[in-house]
Amino acid sequence: MTRIVIMGGGPAGYEAALVAAQYGAEVTLIETDGPGGGCVLYDCVPSKTFIASAGARTSVRDADELGVIVPPQKVDVDVEVVHGRVKSLALAQSADIGARLLSEGVAMIAGRAELADSAPGLAAHRILVHGNDGVDTVLEADVVLIATGASPRILDSAVPDGERILTWRQLYTLKEFPEHLIVIGSGVTGAEFASAYNEIGVKVTLVSSRDRVLPSEDADAAAVIEAVFTEHGGGLARRARAASVVREGDEVVVTLTDGRQVRGSHALMTVGSIPNTAGIGLDKVGIEVPDSGFIPVDRVSRTSVAGIYAAGDCTGVLMLASVAAMQGRIAMWHALGEGVPPMRLRTVAANVFTHPEIATVGISQAEVDAGTVPARTMMMPLSTNPRAKMTGMRNGFIKLMIRPATGIVIGGVVVAPEASELILPIAMAVQNGLTAKDLAYTLSVYPSLSGSITEIGRRLMHYDGDLG
Ligand SMILES: Cc1cc2nc3c(=O)[nH]c(=O)nc-3n(C[C@H](O)[C@H](O)[C@H](O)COP(=O)(O)OP(=O)(O)OC[C@H]3O[C@@H](n4cnc5c(N)ncnc54)[C@H](O)[C@@H]3O)c2cc1C
Ligand SMILES: NC(=O)c1ccc[n+]([C@@H]2O[C@H](COP(=O)([O-])OP(=O)(O)OC[C@H]3O[C@@H](n4cnc5c(N)ncnc54)[C@H](O)[C@@H]3O)[C@@H](O)[C@H]2O)c1
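Above: query sequence and nicotinamide-adenine-dinucleotide SMILES. Below: predicted holo structure tokens.
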């Protein structure tokens, strides 16, 4: 029986464990913090649960346009209920994952694992486990999966204190909402929290080192998010790189590299993540990492050392739970001799959970504009969609990219309150090489937001060639 040891129990680790157990391997998973890992306990699950509360408040605010009037002074958001729900839901999700792993026969050890081979180049590997109970154990493995994830990046000049200068993992211990939250860093994490706190009624200033929010996302989409954010009272400091964050009495002072200062009651540091790859014995097995600390892997999750795979945020391939999970599964299928399709990043659907959401799949508008990918693009504002009008939805759009000669759908962007749900038909088109005509001939519900996807298909279908 193949002995598999998995270091880390986030989506990369636990999904890999489930696959390996299904194939009859002897699987041991070592996780420091709890089943589900950083994703479930601190990052993805808590943030999306918090954002759900913010969304509920937004729905109440926006209901007046539909004739349901709730005076703002009557809307109260109970911070203890919100934070309590976030924490208990994360723990419940973690417990569910733990129970599933146990029922599939995965052995779990709570502790910290490190590679401990006596020399590089061995066929089987040794893993030293420092148990949370103080007991050290040594395991032997034919296959190892490193799935140790990543942690918030800390700037020396802005060290979180857990009270007023915070990482996103410390937010849910606050007893009151901040009076004025300064969010530093306008990547996906910063944009999501800035939007959520703004929607929940907290004064927010977003410090963006670039000209705009979400520099890596579709520019049209980012413009909508910025407009909604500022329309609802959010402040934006552009071209603003934080040099330091310090406390002064009940305030935090963010000093920017150009000397400007932003003052608020709390600062949330969202300046990226660093991989958890230090001190895990990579040198013992001969895995070399660049300065970034990310472990290089190929498209079936192999590291440079035979029998050792890596998956998820510790590889830096695409820091998403869905990608981490697929990398983990692919590693196990490959290790256990199953024919496996290599990871295809082109078909990954991703979503930014701002208000409204941004969902994307396939090639980007930036690649089309740069001339790297020839494509025809069509964008349709949701304000022209009948269902959107009925529900009072004004902001948002659907955009499709197709190959000019064949009409094959190669990318899409949706900006809408539930874009994460609407992106699936476009993702299926990209994954399966469907054309604009395939979308055009599909019957969508009337009235529906997805009707705009088939409508764009109809407008683009003559590029399939038939209509000249
Ligand atoms: C605020 C935030 C929100 C996010 N929201 C989303 C989202 O909505 N959708 C999405 O797809 N992605 C989201 N992500 C990204 C997603 O959380 C990560 O891509 C995902 O967690 C990666 O999974 P992983 O298994 O690689 O690592 P993790 O989930 O970080 O799990 C790794 C685990 O390994 C443990 N570990 C580390 N070292 C050791 C060791 N030596 N021994 C044993 N255990 C160890 C860690 O304690 C950790 O629990 C979000 C990220 C952040 C920061
Ligand atoms: N919904 C989701 O799927 C979701 C949510 C959150 C994070 N993630 C993933 O996690 C990964 C990390 O995202 P992230 O947003 O945490 O990190 P990031 O590295 O993408 O963004 C950090 C931002 O902070 C800025 N920054 C760095 N130092 C700064 C300073 N001193 N002052 C001001 N700005 C500064 C950077 O320029 C960058 O724009 C991404 O790959 C993302 O896809 C996904």
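The chain is about 30% helix and 25% strand.
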